[in-house]
Write a structure and sequence with these properties.
Keywords: FAD, Flavoprotein, Oxidoreductase. It comes from Streptomyces macrosporus. This protein is an alpha/beta fold. Helix content is about 25%, strand content about 25%. The protein has 2 domains: about 190 residues, FAD/NAD(P)-binding domain (3-Layer(bba) Sandwich); about 120 residues, FAD/NAD(P)-binding domain, CATH 3.50.50. The protein starts with a strand and ends in a 28-residue tail after the last helix. About 45% of the residues are buried.
Length: about 400
């Protein structure tokens, strides 16, 4: 009987994990099912580009996983029963179904987070999803010259959104409102370059301005200041998919699944969580931040750990660490901030056109890894060994 592996979510982490498992495990022994609501891959790190009118290359899963042995199930996940080891889904035609698993890889990711700020959900736009980016695209296209656009949030996404809009639409009055200082986590060189580009693009920066309310034509800050906004774009962080919180899995107060160093749930050994859905610990015992930079290594780690446990191999022991933060500042400028293993900025930073090219190569490389899930690795499809039914641990190696 085949060991049933179900991967929930086909973003960067889920798609990479499914492909890596297909490369590691023998098809006769394992059935891998990838469940996703959309039929093609979404390059989430490019949603700010989509929002300003740029078209992205379509990447259908039917082509990406053709011949890999991975079965694609187009459906929305509505629930997971970790005691019965089942996943409830609703197919595109509205029909409900249930999938049984032996090993589950939870990669449902995250969406935008309005932080409970009054009016944000009703009036602000988000770029954490393709539908959100497309709605913002339509709204921006309808703005007349001189109208104000306010980006709320000074993290990586906020910086990329503000500069992309300002470069694509220099006729608009673009502003950014950030709770702290502009790029205050960057090195001196990084902050200096960021301020230079913001000045060149004419972006107004409201620093130490926590937004406490959003209306159709303005945002309000904690000190009572009203900032005009024909369009407000909300980029203050992410909230994980709610399914995990409704299960018996051990999760944090924000709904992230608590995992060990192999991305295995600490409460349910048949479940692995990767990407934004996982509360994984990196160097310095610091939680990994929600990002593609964190997510892809967790996918590698989980896939290799699952393969090792199923085949009697050696568990991976590769620490997940950071090397840099890659920020696009429009299409012609960028900033690569080099960081310590635990994500603290160091003095070195790459700036200018070369940094923009570097960031573009990173984005293309991540998409290539998803679009070619079984390439780039040596073929080592190993046979699955008999497992202990109760614990899932390997008890005998195959001949």
């Amino acid at each position: 009987m085949q060991h049933r592996v179900i991967v929930l979510g086909a973003g960067y982490t889920g798609a990479i994990a499914a492909g890596r498992l297909a490369k590691r495990l023998h098809r006769d022994d394992v059935a891998i099912t990838l469940v996703n609501a959309e039929p093609d891959f979404v390059e989430r790190v490019r949603m700010h580009q989509l929002a300003v009118g740029q078209d992205l290359r379509p990447r259908p899963f039917s082509e990406m996983f053709a011949g890999t042995g991975v079965e694609l199930r187009l459906a929305k996940v509505t629930g997971v029963d970790v005691d019965r080891k089942t996943v409830a889904v609703v197919d595109a035609d509205g029909g409900a179904g249930e999938l049984e698993y032996d090993t589950l890889v939870y990669a449902l990711g995250s969406g935008w987070h309005d932080q409970g700020v009054p009016g944000a959900a009703e009036h602000a736009h988000e770029v954490a999803s393709r539908p959100g980016a497309l709605r913002l695209r339509e709204r921006l296209a309808g703005l007349d010259a001189g109208q104000p656009v306010v980006v709320v949030g000074g993290g990586l996404t906020g910086l990329e959104v503000a500069t992309e809009i300002a470069e694509a639409r220099p006729d608009l009055a673009v502003a950014l409102a950030t709770r702290g200082g502009l790029g205050d986590w960057l090195s001196d060189k990084g902050r200096g370059h960021l301020r230079k580009i913001f000045g060149k693009l004419g972006i107004t920066v409201h620093e130490h301005a926590a937004v406490t309310g959003v209306e159709a034509d303005r945002v309000t800050t904690a000190d009572g200041k009203a900032i005009p906004a024909a369009v407000t774009v909300w980029t203050t962080g992410f909230a994980v998919h709610p399914v995990a919180r409704a299960t018996a899995l051990e999760v944090t107060d924000t709904g992230r699944i608590v995992v060990d160093g192999t991305m295995r749930s600490v409460s349910h050994p048949d479940v692995y969580a990767i990407g934004d859905a996982a509360m994984a610990v990196g160097p310095g015992d610091k939680p990994l931040r929600m990002s593609c930079a964190s997510g892809v290594p967790t996918a590698w780690q989980a896939a290799d750990a699952i393969a090792a446990r199923l085949t009697g191999g050696k568990l991976p022991n590769t620490p997940i660490r950071y090397f840099n933060q890659c920020i696009s500042l429009g299409r012609r400028e960028g900033l690569i901030q080099y960081v310590t293993a635990d994500d603290r900025a160091v003095g070195a930073a790459l700036t200018g056109r070369l940094a923009a090219v570097y960031k573009e190569l990173v984005c293309k490389g991540a998409a290539w890894g998803v679009a070619n899930p079984t390439l780039g690795l040596p073929t080592r499809r190993r046979r699955v060994v008999r497992e202990a039914v109760r614990t899932g641990s390997v008890v005998k190696a195959s001949a």
